[in-house]
Design goal:
The structure is a homotrimer of 153-residue chains. Chain A has 153 residues and is an alpha+beta fold. Helices cover 30% and strands 29% of the residues of chain A. In chain A, helix 2 (59-80) packs across helix 3 (107-122).
């Protein structure tokens, strides 16, 4: 079991079967050593985590939603790597989008829910560049969507 | 004529002369095998396709706007490749931004207008990772903006 | 002194000590020849440049905020390159996010504040692909956030 798998187990994170898009886009594309993973919404084991920060969702719930996006990203990375997370060299970049009301400004704190999980699972290789911005709405009403670029071997 | 050119013709898609930005940015930059194309708005032969989903534009019109963004992306890729679309190896990633009201959640369906065209034109090489999010407004009031990363030879 | 440093001096731009994120993400990650820099907000020497275009901030102020994001991006690039900006080969892509009211559409003009600085500092190597979109709010109420991809040696 890879270190990352061990840490996922210690954290009590069960990776979902990675969602397969139902359209003409795919969950990930590799080009050279870069793996691009499609935007993952905050879909958890109990369904879609919906809400708008600053309106009907607090920061803790937003962080949980961002963490779930990270779980879904990791599930896609694992699928792209034939099940072997030890082939992940680095989380390069996360693009975080938060469903937020116009007066909500704690956007970085929300996306930290994803950043923290990446480092908890991958250690220093989980430290990444990122952007964190707000959107007036997201697919299906999701609270958070995050896409990613990963360096893989 | 490349396969992609043949399919464009069969689809009745005429590529526009690629728009040249009027500022200090450029339509595309190549680094290694990756071609980054600037965000293309829904500018069609009859002018800018303006509107806000969930307010004054329905999903079908939004899909047509997204499709037009894809047409404009392909025109830029062709220009970057010296006119030879057979040098496109893969559509790697599309970043889709939909001008949408706060209660509109069918964002993926809108961006499918672009994803579907990429696969219609490039086949499996057109399958891509993507993100799809909403914005409260877009340049000049455009309904959709999409940028892209492409692998080229 | 590199050409870029000379131009920065001529422009009267003092690079700040690059901000270190206070969370589990980092200011930049290099993968191959690509340097990904985290989204930089419009934080200047006099504090955060806050505001919403089309509401309480005009285009000139927005351009100044975008320019400051570019200054902060350059500071991070310099840090990533061990202080030697001559190792920057190309500004590849800027992702621009403008805090804007729903009826504001001059988003490209705002982001030009960043694009113009890149070309003023780096010449042709500063010409980049970009996207420019709006957000209903940004971290801490910043007026602009911009992330970037750079080709480095």
């Amino acid at each position: 079991m890879s270190d990352a798998e061990t840490r996922l187990k210690q954290l009590g994170v069960a990776l979902p079967s990675p969602a397969a898009p139902v359209a003409n886009y795919v969950p990930f594309v590799r080009t050279g050593a870069s793996l691009y993973v499609s935007g993952q919404v905050s879909l958890g084991p109990d369904g879609l985590m919906k809400g708008r920060l600053g309106e009907d969702m607090d920061i803790a719930a937003g962080q949980a939603a961002a963490r779930q996006c990270a779980v879904n990203l990791i599930a896609q990375v694992k699928a792209a790597l034939g099940g072997d997370l030890s082939r992940l060299r680095r989380v390069v970049k996360l693009g975080g989008f938060v469903n937020a009301a116009g007066d909500f400004t704690d956007i970085p704190q929300v996306i930290n829910g994803a950043s923290d999980l990446m480092v908890a699972v991958f250690g220093d290789a989980g430290r990444h560049a990122r952007s964190a911005v707000a959107c007036p709405t997201l697919p299906l009403g999701a609270a958070v969507e995050i896409d990613g670029v990963f360096e893989v071997s």
